[in-house]
Specification:
Layout lengths: L14 E4 L2 E4 L5 H21 L5 H17 L10 H11 L13 H8 L4 H17 L7 H4 L2 E2 L7 E2 L7 H4 L2 H4 L3
Antiparallel strand pairs: 1-2, 3-4
């Protein structure tokens, strides 16, 4: 049998999408954050145009069911580390202004009234859940490989802060928890 394989050169790509997450050729996620913010804003516009009566409970249910999953999908991978990206994402959650009775309140007060946590808080909460799982053996990875601990005083679950030489490394999951 004769092998008729044809060599096809690979095209250069500046960004790629894998499992719904966009990354650029420098492994940055600014494009993905932009896509997520655009999708969230698009869905908020749909909610705004579709519902005349915007009760607090209705808006909260619509937001948590339709918008929030887009803002948080795979955020363990693309965890925003720049203030600009965090502000973009939080700006979408400012949709709490859709509730007429809350429009005059500041953002934090609207979140408290609707019993919604900020997106930053939700990311840190998720990280803490993962730390708990690692430290209590719910994963097959030993906790010392990912999160070094120290038992000098108190309990065995004190986390050590690793030294990071680069800004990018300081934003990783294990380093981000120690801030």
């Amino acid at each position: 049998m004769k092998n008729d394989s044809v060599e096809v050169p690979l095209e250069h790509s500046t960004k790629e999408k894998d499992l719904g997450v966009w990354t650029d050729d420098k492994l940055k996620f600014a494009g993905h954050v932009g896509q997520v913010v655009a999708k969230g804003s698009q869905l908020l516009g749909l909610i705004k145009r579709s519902f005349v009566h915007r009760d607090m409970d209705v808006i909260k249910k619509l937001y948590t069911a339709l918008v929030q999953p887009h803002l948080e999908y795979a955020n363990v991978v693309w965890h925003p580390r720049y203030k600009k990206e965090i502000k973009q994402l939080e700006r979408v959650q400012r949709a709490t202004k859709l509730v007429g009775s809350l429009q005059s309140l500041p953002y934090e007060s609207r979140l408290r009234q609707m019993e919604l946590p900020s997106l930053v808080y939700r990311r840190y909460h998720g990280n803490m859940i993962e730390v708990f799982k690692y430290l209590h053996g719910m994963y097959s990875v030993t906790s010392n490989e990912l999160l070094p601990t120290s038992a000098l005083r108190g309990h065995d679950h004190k986390l050590l802060k690793r030294h990071c030489r680069s800004h990018a490394r300081s934003s990783f999951f294990s380093s981000d928890l120690m801030e």
